Design the sequence.
């Protein structure tokens, strides 16, 4: 069953007097409870797709449905509600609040939704229970991303949207973080969307959507995804 | 380097809202300083020129019938350079309207020379009169006109030979009942001794003007003069004690203090603002600095480049402030002084110190900008080109109080930790609101103070309807008046006496007060002062002048006799300043009570009393109250200036800070929006960010505002009224509403930016 569907989605940006088509007639499904990787080089339309899935931008034409509900033309407030309740975001550069400690960084999203998970439990789940009172500046890159994952999951969202989650990490740390991300998503039965240019990550995904020059190049289904530990980074 | 200058101007334009606030603070600081400096320095220069051109006396000796032998003996005293005998006599220009004229006849024209404005040069032997220029102006008189002068039943007509300014009459009120000069009612003129003789055959020289040699000891000289004149001696007044002159000199000092007090706050803010802004600019351009270094720019070139930001903004701000001050603040404030002082020239003039201040401000601002870049410039280019490390945080003091800390929301914890982390910025915000509160409380407070103290003096302390001055009133006259007024009056002796403590000799106001309810003395805390039946009460100002404490003794020279009396109490009193004795105490000390002032209620027979020959002058409480109210005029311009500065200060500083905080937290706000925070929640967060500084600034501002007001009201105090600070609750509330209102409006404007947050920014790397 599709958690999210793109149907003939087009996104154009105004550049000077002209227009640039960043996403051209994209049609695909994101399957519920599965890991989907959106893969492509720079300028392929990855970020545009991520912005549209995350409800951070509006499409020019086409339809986006979430659990069967069209979100293409909903109001600004409804779009915020969608991000608030449906999407958990994992950023490439963690985007934690420097003045809040680890537990506070998770707790800040707790009030955004009624069925939020326990922040302390989330911290424990990502293995940072001993770092609860530490500020982001006192944590390593891997710990920061684990914290970011805990924050994203704390809202108990339907979809975990990850923007290059290992992009700022070395390969060993990246692998650990990815493993945690996939495990956590499976444990909590979440739909995971990873937007990346790193082809190795695609090997762990259930579905891979290849983007090139703003178009869907191909969609691959992976019946036997590798375990993160098996991937050659 | 030319390219870097181009880059600097582009940066300045891009960050204009932040640099404009530094520019405005520099401009306002300089505008206020040089504007007010132009006033006091101009007044000082005019005073110095006036004093030197007129050879103003150092000491005025008042005595009865000074003869030439005595004058010669005084001239021989060590430390006296020259002397000049004068006969001073009060007459009338119009008895009906009580236009008084003080006539002065000098034996020579060497000391306190009248300054001619129109007509012929003053000749102390010639007939005619050299009339007060301000009176002539008010009455449309000019040289060549003739005026009539009356003394008792004698009348004489004199030709106006010239119009003059008398240096001894800079702030001449003519009577102790008036607080400000009234040129149409109290004037003066210079005549020959023969002219005086025509009006009063018994006139003699009764004043001696003295010029002292350098480093002469005026106290010792006073004592020697007293010995020579013995019973004839009345008083010896130095220039500092002569309120006709000293009130002007003191005013210069007061305005000088004001210029420093008000400009310091703006200069401090411009320095703090430039530090914060430059630090942020340099942090944001860390990569650019790395690129510049990688391209081969020397460290010194980069440091000079950033120092130029401070230089350009501060130099334009201070110079513009300096240039517009002589056309705005200086003339506006000088105009207000003209009602109180008579001087031939009123020109604002700045001292070289204003230029030094510009140089100092520019140097400090440039150095601050220079220093802000030096740390990053020292880094290796590779380090500067790397992404900045994550901003560090640490626990605040409040986290040691778990009960308090745990009760706070995450937003508040964030705000408090940030405030502790960015101390300078927090301090700027606090000073912005604090400064605004201080200026608002001062401007409203000075109005409240003058009004309240005047109400206290002319509403509660004095409750008579009219005050009447008498000359040589006999016992019969007093009895007759008592009878006419059915004893519904109060008798007083008031005058100036020379008083001497073990350390000093000064001339002070002296009051012997009979029982009655038309004058009740109150201290500044509104407590009634009961005059003792033994001893005297002195005001705090007099106690300071004489350096006396309670239970010490002072000697009062009254009608040629030295009367020694014990200081029973020293009281803090608004007005008048002087020595107070009850009639009983005065009589118990072996003296006779000879009143010269009558305080009367609104009695049916009062008009009859006013017609009596013994009455020389009358003044109603209402007109005294109006006179006192006009003191407000001298501070009105300053008040308006302060109100405008207060609003500008809080708006500019808080907007700049709000913007700085907003741009710095933009990424966090964008992240929160991605995570699903509503616009309203981000707006609340932006709001909370400045609430802390606003509340702290307001609280400290309330205390600082009161302290500032206390100092400020001293600067508007006169020799007769010492103002104690007073602020109505409504004024405090209004100050709060304006200060917090401005902060609120600024916050609303900044928080509206939440709508335009671009969430995609949160996805970018930290640059």
Sequence:
């Amino acid at each position: 069953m599709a958690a999210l569907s793109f149907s003939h989605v087009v996104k154009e940006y105004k550049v000077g007097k002209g227009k640039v088509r960043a996403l051209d007639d994209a049609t695909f499904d994101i399957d519920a409870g599965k890991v989907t990787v959106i893969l492509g080089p720079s300028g392929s339309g990855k970020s545009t797709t991520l912005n549209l899935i995350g409800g951070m931008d509006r499409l020019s034409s086409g339809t986006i449905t979430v659990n069967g509900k069209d979100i293409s033309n909903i109001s600004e407030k409804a779009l915020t509600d969608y991000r608030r309740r449906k999407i958990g975001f994992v950023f490439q550069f963690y985007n934690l609040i420097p003045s809040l400690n680890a537990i506070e960084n998770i707790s800040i999203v707790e009030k955004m939704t009624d069925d939020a998970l326990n922040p302390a439990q989330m911290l424990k789940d990502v293995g940072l229970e001993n770092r609860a009172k530490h500020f982001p500046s006192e944590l390593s890159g891997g710990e920061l991303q684990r914290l970011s994952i805990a924050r994203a999951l704390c809202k108990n969202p339907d979809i975990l949207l990850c923007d290059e989650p290992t992009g700022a990490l070395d390969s060993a740390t990246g692998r650990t973080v990815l493993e945690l991300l996939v495990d956590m998503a499976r444990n909590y039965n979440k739909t995971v969307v990873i937007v990346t240019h790193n082809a190795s990550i695609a090997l762990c995904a259930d579905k891979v959507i290849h983007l090139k020059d703003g178009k869907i190049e191909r969609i691959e289904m992976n019946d036997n995804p590798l375990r993160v530990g098996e991937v050659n980074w | 380097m030319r390219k870097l200058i181009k880059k600097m101007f582009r940066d300045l334009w891009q960050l204009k809202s932040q640099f404009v606030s530094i520019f405005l603070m520099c401009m306002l600081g300089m505008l206020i300083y040089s504007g007010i400096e132009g006033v006091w320095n101009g007044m000082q220069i005019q005073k110095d020129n006036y004093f030197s051109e007129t050879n103003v006396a150092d000491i005025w000796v008042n005595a009865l019938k000074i003869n030439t032998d005595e004058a010669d003996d005084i001239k021989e005293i060590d430390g006296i350079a020259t002397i000049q005998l004068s006969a001073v006599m009060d007459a009338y220009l119009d008895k009906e309207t009580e236009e008084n004229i003080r006539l002065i006849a000098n034996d020579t024209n060497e000391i306190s020379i009248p300054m001619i404005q129109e007509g012929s040069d003053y000749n102390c032997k010639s007939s005619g009169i050299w009339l007060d220029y301000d009176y002539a102006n008010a009455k449309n008189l000019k040289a060549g006109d003739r005026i009539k002068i009356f003394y008792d039943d004698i009348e004489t007509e004199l030709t106006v030979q010239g119009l003059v300014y008398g240096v001894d009459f800079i702030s001449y009120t003519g009577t102790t009942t008036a607080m400000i000069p009234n040129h149409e009612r109290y004037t003066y003129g210079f005549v020959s001794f023969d002219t005086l003789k025509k009006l009063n055959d018994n006139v003699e020289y009764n004043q001696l003007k003295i010029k002292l040699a350098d480093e002469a000891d005026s106290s010792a000289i006073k004592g020697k003069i007293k010995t020579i004149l013995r019973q004839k001696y009345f008083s010896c007044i130095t220039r500092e004690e002569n309120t006709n002159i000293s009130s002007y000199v003191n005013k210069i000092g007061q305005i000088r203090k004001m210029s420093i007090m008000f400009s310091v706050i703006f200069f401090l803010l411009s320095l703090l603002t430039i530090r914060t802004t430059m630090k942020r600019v340099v942090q944001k351009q860390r990569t650019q600095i790395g690129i510049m270094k990688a391209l081969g720019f020397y460290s010194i070139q980069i440091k000079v480049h950033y120092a130029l930001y401070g230089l350009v903004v501060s130099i334009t701000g201070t110079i513009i402030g300096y240039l517009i001050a002589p056309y705005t603040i200086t003339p506006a404030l000088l105009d207000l002084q003209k009602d109180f002082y008579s001087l031939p020239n009123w020109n604002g003039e700045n001292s070289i110190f204003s230029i030094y201040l510009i140089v100092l401000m520019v140097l400090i601002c440039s150095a601050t900008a220079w220093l802000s870049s030096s740390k990053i410039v020292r880094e290796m280019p590779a380090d500067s080109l790397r992404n900045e490390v994550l901003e560090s945080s640490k626990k605040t003091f409040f986290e040691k109080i778990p009960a308090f800390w745990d009760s706070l929301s995450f937003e508040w914890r964030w705000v408090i930790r940030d405030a502790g982390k960015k101390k300078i910025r927090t301090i700027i915000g606090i000073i912005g609101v604090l400064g605004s509160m201080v200026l608002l409380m001062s401007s409203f407070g000075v109005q409240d103070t003058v009004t309240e103290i005047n109400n206290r003096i002319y509403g509660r302390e004095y409750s008579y309807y009219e005050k009447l001055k008498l000359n040589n009133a006999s016992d019969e006259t007093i009895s007759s008046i008592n009878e006419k007024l059915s004893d519904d009056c109060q008798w007083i002796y008031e005058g100036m006496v020379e008083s001497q403590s073990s350390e000093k000799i000064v001339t002070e106001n002296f009051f012997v007060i009979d029982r009655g309810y038309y004058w009740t003395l109150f201290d500044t805390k509104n407590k009634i002062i009961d005059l003792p039946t033994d001893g005297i009460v002195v005001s705090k100002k007099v106690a300071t002048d004489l350096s006396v404490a309670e239970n010490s003794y002072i000697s009062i020279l009254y009608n040629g006799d030295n009367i020694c009396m014990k200081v029973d109490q020293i009281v803090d009193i608004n007005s008048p300043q002087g020595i107070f004795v009850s009639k009983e105490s005065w009589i118990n000390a072996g003296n006779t009570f000879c009143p010269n002032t009558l305080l009367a209620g609104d009695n049916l027979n009062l008009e009859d009393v006013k017609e009596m020959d013994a009455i020389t002058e009358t003044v109603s409480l209402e007109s005294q109250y109006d006179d006192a109210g006009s003191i407000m005029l001298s501070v009105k311009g300053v008040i308006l200036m302060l109100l405008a500065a207060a609003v500008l200060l809080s708006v500019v500083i808080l907007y700049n800070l709000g913007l700085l905080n907003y741009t710095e937290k933009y990424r966090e706000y964008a992240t929160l929006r991605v995570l699903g925070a509503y616009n309203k929640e981000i707006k609340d967060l932006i709001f909370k960010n400045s609430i802390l500084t606003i509340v702290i600034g307001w609280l400290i501002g309330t205390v600082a505002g009161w302290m500032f007001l206390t100092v400020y009201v001293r600067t508007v105090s006169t020799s007769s009224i010492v103002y104690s600070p007073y602020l109505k609750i409504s004024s405090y509330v209004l100050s709060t509403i304006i200060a917090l209102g401005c902060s609120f409006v600024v916050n609303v404007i900044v928080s509206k930016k939440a709508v335009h947050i671009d969430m995609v920014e949160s996805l970018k790397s930290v640059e």
